[in-house]
Every structure is written in structure tokens, then in C-alpha cells.
Amino acid sequence: MRDVLLIRYGEVHLKGQNRSYFMRLLKEDIQHALSDMGATITSGQGRFYASGYPKDREDEAVSRIAKIFGLHSVSRAREVEKAWEAICEAAKELMKQELVSRGGSCTFKVFSRRADKTFPMDSMTIARELGHVLLEEFSNLKVDVNSPEVPLSVEIREHAYVYSGEVLGAGGMPAGSNGRAALLLSGGIDSPVAGYMVMKRGVDLHCIHFHSFPYTSERAKDKVIALAKLLAGYGGSVVMHVVHFTDVQMAIYEKCPDNETTILLRRAMMAIAERIAAKNGCKALVTGEAIGQVASQTMESLVVTDNAVTMPVFRPCIGMDKVEIMDYAKRIGTYETSILPYEDCCTIFTPKHPVTKPKLENIKKSEAKLENYEELLNGAIERTETFVVTP
Ligand code: ATP
Ligand code: MG
Prior knowledge:
This protein is an alpha/beta fold. 40% of the residues lie in helices and 21% in strands.
């Protein structure tokens, strides 16, 4: 008998011929997540198993596994031989612990699953018989088939596995299984959420941040790197590009109408991001925009912003209210960092009355006032700092 973590995966089973590729990615991700714990990862029919980690780090192992995209859930299980006696012993021991931690009495239900059809009892019989065994052993137990406090589960697979409960995983698709995209990462609440959502679907992220030193401080940049680090916690690493945006920004402020500066900045950011993205094999841009959230995110503004690039722009937060995005940020652990009070390059010199219904022709005319626009964009790209961020 030994302790293992029994790990279930999500949508991967739908992927036909690519299944073995997805399985390999997932196994590597689990191996990587537990690499400092001396754990062994094996794959069986429909499950992965982690074993050999230090018992006192089991909770840590579970929470790391729960962050891996493509996994459905994880359970702390006892692995025993496929023999009725051994299964009963493991179940009794587990129930004894549950009773102690629940003050001596509780309700339960036995769930069972027989993947190995050579096992002589079917799953209904296992559940029924094991229920009897437990009721006989412990007088303070009661069956509750609707909402049991202890869902005692048995799975018959490579071995028999006995456990109660599961920790839900992150869901989604294995990291890196769906190509690469570039996230425009500000220090705000929305863009980390947008980044998380595409990462969750298996997309590798490059993060692009526009920094206007000395108008935005080193601490503002550090905050964005801290956000990238939090995102890296979900995919192993992200590549960060910090663009020196000051010259572009100053030129726009000097030469263009005050009420159009925000939308012009947005277009410049997109144009620069598209070029950095293309150079790095990214197939799409990702932003944290939502319809109507601010002046630069009205339908008209989004259309004018999109027109600055040909690469597809994904906006996973598009239909979300701010409070919904905030809740999401809290759930993924980026909120506390996002609300730290450092300035963003979009918020310095914000015009009092930004256009909310920009017309593309007008904006293009204003942009044309920047005769050296190409040079400015290229200058910003040349001075970009690129580095890898790990959790
Ligand atoms: P966020 O909370 O993500 O900062 P926001 O509500 O503050 O969003 P804006 O400032 O209009 O909205 O930015 C819209 C989107 O543009 C952001 O979600 C982000 O993708 C991108 N963006 C804004 N500022 C920057 C920046 N300095 N560097 C990189 N991307 C940025
Ligand atoms: Mg912002």
C-alpha cells in the first residue's frame, strides 16, 4: 500500500489522433511542477499517478497540480492491490481518519468505478458491499446518497485506489498545445485575466509591456513583471518584452489633438506589438479590453484600434463587466498585485475629453502628422528589453 496522487485529465480525451501528444505534454507538465520533490509520474488508463513525493509536501504537490492546464482534478489516494480484503482495509483506515477529523460521526456514500473489467465484482456490487463493511465497522456512520460528507471512492484500474474527495484542477488545454500569442500586459486588472484565459486554452504567452520611463517608474515596471510572474505560475514561464515607449508617446502628445491622444497611443501600441509578436512567432494579439469600459473601448474605438494591425486581436474579457473581471482576477491570484498604486503610461497625461466615437479618417490624418512615425515605432522596438520570466 502506498500514497499516490490520482490525477484526472479533461478535454484531452476528445482529441483523437493528437491524444498521445497531449498526454505527453501533460505528463511533462506534472513532472516539471513536482521536479523538486523527487516524485515519479506514471500514466495509466485514463489517469496519471504521482508517487514518491515527501508526504509532508503533499498539499503543496496538490496545489501545484491544480494549477496545470489540461487537468481536471486530483485526489489523494491509497494505492492497494486489487484484492477485496486490501480494498476494505484501506477504506476502513481512510474512514477512521475522516471520523476523527469530523468529530466522531459523519455521513458517507461509496462511489466506485471498475475500469479493469477482469475484477470479479462490478461497480454496483463494490459500492454496496463496501458500504456494508464500513457500516459494520463504525457505528457513527450514516449513509446519505444525496449530499454525503464523505464521498468515499474506489477505482479499480492498474491497482485499486481508495480516496475521499477531489481538488478541482484548472481545466483547459495543456500549456503550449495551441501555439503562441502576444498579450499586451498593462499593470491593470484586465489584461492579466485576458492572458490567463488564453493560456488556459493551451496558448504560450509573450507579454508586451509599454513603459514610458521616466514618466512611469521602475516600480511600475516591476509590478508588471510581478504580474507576468504570476501568469508564469500557470504555464511554467512567459517571455516578457518591455518596450521603451516614451518617444512615441511624447511625439503623439506634441503633434496630435489632445482628445485623440489615447486612441493614437492605442494604435501605436498595437502596431509595435504586432511587429514584436510576428518576430517571435506569435499568431495573434491579446488585450484586456471590454466593450464600453472606457472611452478607448467603445465599439468605434475598438474598430479604429483594430485597424492599426492585420494580426487577429483576441479580447477574452470583451463581454465581461468590470466586477466580473475583478472576481476572476481574485480567483487567479493577480488582483492584489494589479491594484498596487503605480502609474500606467496610458493614465499619465490622460486627456480630459477623449473622443468616444473616433472616425478612422480623422485619426489617420492625425497620425499622418507624425512624419517620422515609422522611425518612432522602429526606435521603440529596437530599444525593447526581452527576458524570460519564471514563477
Ligand atoms: P487593464 O486593467 O488591463 O490595464 P484598462 O481597463 O486599464 O485595462 P486600458 O488602459 O484602456 O484599459 O488598456 C486596454 C488594454 O490595452 C489593456 O487591457 C492592455 O491589454 C493594453 N494596455 C494598456 N496599457 C498598456 C501598457 N502600458 N502596456 C501594455 N499593454 C497595455
Ligand atoms: Mg490599463
